[in-house]
Amino acid sequence: MIAALSLVIAGMPTSALANKGASPSSAAVPSASTPGTISGQIVLPPGIDGENFDVDTYYFDSDPSSMRWRLGEYVSANPDGSFVIGDLEDGREYRLHLDNYADGYVGGFYAGPGVPLLAEPELGVPIFSPSSGLQLHPITGIEISGTFTLPPGFDWSVDGTEQGFEIGARELSADGTDWIDGESSWVNALSNGKFEITDLRPGAAYALAVHDGYGRFANGLHHVGAVGLVDELEKATPVTAGATTVQITIGSSLGTPKLSSLAAPAVSGVATVGKTLVATPGQWSLYLVGTTYQWLRNGAAITGATSASYTLAPVDAGAKIAVRITGAKAGYTSVVATSAPTTTVAKAAAPSASKSPVVSGTARLGSRLYATAGTWSVPGVTVAYQWLRNGSAIKGATSSSYRSTTADVGKSVSVRVTARLAGYFDGAASSAAKKVAKGKPKVTAKAKSVKASKRAKVVVRVKAAGLARPTGTVTVKYGKKSVKVKLVAKAKGKVSVRLPELAKGTYKIKVTFKPSTKAKKFVTKASSTKVVLRVKK
Question: Which domain does 279 fall in, by range?
């Protein structure tokens, strides 16, 4: 089986040769506007002549017995890289392919402006005749290189002459079930134990075939590790173009493949609450291995987190996140591989106030001020309040309202609101400040009617919100005369004032309060409304 496979691998498949012919000639150059043409320009690398390239059209054969892409018309490019393909069917869908014969470059199917050429026709973009102005950019090829080991007793000499063997790289189809026609490179392996295959498509997956035409070992396909060569494509280990440390083990017989993890999964993204982490499945010893995902928090499975990406939740703050991937392929034992953990997940940025807190109410001694919470950039926050005096926290003032005290008079009072949400740093915003004014006492007076032979008594009350024991001078004016008394602290704002004996009549009483030197720091002067005192006969 392998011998037959190697014959096909070693050159272009016979079906392609039959369709294309052995040596296409340059086509006539009709006008680009002529129906039935597709024209364009190969963007030539420096020092490379356009005659190193052919441009082909492929069309899909929808006949149920075929159902495949077939080679249509093709031309060799002109020396300047221009090309015109004629004899095409207008309105028919084509794929455009660049064939490369220049060392160091890779061809492929046109996939649109600015997109690198691709390996398979179904990956290209539809082109319809007539079309013009297309640009094809040859791809700079890269290598796969490494070393090989041989079976014990391997003899390089054949009939007295040192003879090498071949190592080839064939690009795998997207579904991993077949080679891509025409996309192959071969080298002759010699006794230095090293190989290098060049002109490969960057990022493409290749299977490495090893073929000895002298029967010194069993021909096969590279499988990683001690397994050695295997007999079928689907058992081969894919190698990505650009790999430079491939180790090919060649045994005296073919090996039995197994599924194994060659490179652990990896997690990319920023480890911050609210950000999304993305898992890459690592590398496996077989092509197109099915993978399932399980995200881990500090090593424990996160319920429901089974996709290739994971958005960090508040509960993840302070933890480390990893992903566990199970690789599975029919006929093989499943393999589990786990990524390295992330750094410790940081909290998300603090919520910000889109509308700052506001303080309402009269800023006066003893008055109550009220705070709004403001509006925050993150929904669901809880808020805490801290009232401030001249920017410093007022001990115990942590509710949404605050009654000013004597310590606030003449100072600026504001509120700072802190917004909290699990998984986020705390956000804070402060209101504009209000300067607290002195209190304005309320003075009341009461006077009962008396006989002319009795002294009238006026009961005075001085109430100042925020100042429980106002002190100062109380003046009771009756008619054009007045009496002054001291209001002391122990009186708690209440004092009785005796008037002299008065003649029969009606007297208007008015009381004023003048705060003491100490009290006037906190309250203003005040007076009562007038009351009437009746003195009877």
Answer: 261-338
